């Protein structure tokens, strides 16, 4: 059976101060969709090495389908050094790794033609090979799927061109305050507040929805029909790795289930807070504990 939701992007191991954790924003997103009850899979690439084998085994242990994960005989599985400062992750992402070389010839075109949601970001587009593949796959799915761009800016691995193409291909975008300021600086406009900056981006790129996350302070959602501000959930933060990915997954899954945007955003916000209260980006969380209907 083909997946309903596809995450396109990097699989890597986060090298945390207290050990190694499975990661990569699209993979976190895919896992969280899966644990919320959706059929979800990731399209990515790992090395033909021990970390790659462990990544595949970990995906399977999470209950995720790994049939769309390519294997690279030349380049190693991706890793990222992660330093936590006041609970916030700061990444050093290693280059020349397997997910930089995602190729089109091994991609699941048939699955993309049937998928309901595709989520992708900017990091895996840092190399021209993966960039071309990601953009082709998104275009293939865009006729029938909800295309979501999780901006996810990391280090210097983005450009105006990549951001412009990614947002043009998308119907939804999710970003944080720092990322919003980068986009506002790149694409101009006279917006002085997050509300007017987002309005300018939505008009420029014809985005149906933009979700802005404030971390512990909640989120703001803007569509053509409404603006929604949701307060943060009070939790004891362990680390915030994967919290934004959980938010995106929660919002997407709740909307797929027919919830109104306000209710979906409330659940997504709660889900992100629960992930931030656990170690790593893929903690197991029962949807019943979220008050999910």
Describe it.
This protein is α/β, with parallel strands linked by helices and 293 residues long. It has a single domain (5-286), classed as UDP-N-acetylmuramoyl-L-alanine:D-glutamate ligase (3-Layer(aba) Sandwich). Helices cover 35% and strands 23% of the residues. The strands form two sheets. A nine-stranded mixed beta sheet has the order 5-4-1-8-9-10-11-12-13, with helices on both faces. It has a four-stranded mixed beta sheet with strand order 3-2-6-7. A hairpin with a 2-residue loop joins strand 2 (12-16) and strand 3. It starts with a strand and ends in a 17-residue tail after the last helix. The model has no long low-confidence stretch (mean pLDDT 92).
Tell me the overall shape.
globular
Let me know the number of strands.
Answer: 13
Name the average pLDDT: 92
Give the spatial strand order of the biggest sheet: 5-4-1-8-9-10-11-12-13
Give the CATH architecture: 3-Layer(aba) Sandwich
Structural class of the helix and strand makeup? alpha/beta
Using only CA atoms, what is the Rg? 17 Å
Number of helices: 9
